[in-house]
Amino acid sequence: MSIWSAYGLAANPFFQEELRSDPAAAYPIALHVGRDAEMRLALRQLGGGTSSRMIVEGAPGIGKTSFVNKLKAEATQSGMLTHADPVRIVADSTVLSFVADVLRVLLRIRTAHGLDGDAFWTRTARLVEGEDTMAGGFTLGPIGVSYQGGRVPAEAPLGTLYEVIAEGVDRVTKDLGAHVLVHVNNLENLGDDDAKRAARLLRDLRDFMMVAGAHWIFVGASGVDYAVFREYDQVAGIFPHPIVLEPLSETEVAELLRRRYEHLAREGTQLVPPVEPSVAADLYGLYRGDLRNFLRLLSDAAALALGVEAIEPLSAERIVAVAAPRYARAIERRVGALDYQHLSRIVSGSRGGEFNVASAGQHVGIGQSGTSRLIARLREAGLIVQVRTEAKKVFYRPAGQVLVALGLAAGTIVP
Ligand SMILES: Nc1ncnc2c1ncn2[C@@H]1O[C@H](COP(=O)(O)OP(=O)(O)O)[C@@H](O)[C@H]1O
Ligand SMILES: [Mg+2]
Question: Does the structure show a pLDDT above 60 at 134?
Answer without folding.
Answer: no
